[in-house]
Amino acid sequence: MKKSSIILFIIFVLIFSACIENQFSNASVNLASGYQLYERNCSNCHQKDGSGFARLYPPLLNSDYILNNPNMVDSIIKHGQKGSIKVNGVEYNLAMPAYTKLSQHEVNQIAYYVLIKFNKLDSLLMEK
Predict the structure, then answer these.
(1) Which strand (E) or helix (H) includes residue 86?
(2) What's the DSSP call for residue 91?
(3) At a CB cut-off of 8 Å and minimum separation 6, what does 8 contact?
(4) What is the pTM of this model?
(5) pLDDT tens across 64-89, in order?
(6) Separation of first and last alpha carbons in the chain
């Protein structure tokens, strides 16, 4: 009886550790893919480090706008943004184009990258 309990426990630990490893592996893959997509589609305006450009393109790094509207990031990427917005006390009024050629999965990966890398919203994403 003891031998079978030990074997079952080992199997349980292996399955559980594989699930945890898979979760972290997926997060790493999404972050890496999001980085590549961000570099190709967003960094020209928002800069590689997310700091934005002058008063033309708002920063994504430590952005109070993103922190207050994290669920809108993917929609803004997909559909664009028109009209005035205020980010970290500075007003921006240059329209952001819609990225309609990106798949929803690609949009989600960019949003994931922006939320994690530039705004440290790991805890918010873990709740979903």
Answers:
(1) strand 85-87
(2) E
(3) none
(4) 0.75
(5) 999 999 999 999 999 999 999 999 99
(6) 41
| Assigned token pair, 92 | 């921006």
- Radius of gyration of the CA atoms of the chain, in A: 19
Tell which residue, 27, 23, 28, 63, has the closest CA to residue 42: 63
Token pair for residue 87?
A: 């980010």
What's at 81, amino acid-wise?
Answer: Q
Q: At what angle do helices 2-41 and 104-113 cross, to 10 degrees?
A: 90
Residue 87: strand, helix, or coil: strand
The domain limits of the chain are: 2-127
How far is residue 77's CA from residue 103's CA, in Å, rounded to a whole number? 11
Superfamily the domain 2-127 falls into: Cytochrome c-like domain (1.10.760.10)
List phi, psi (to 5°) of 81. -145, 125
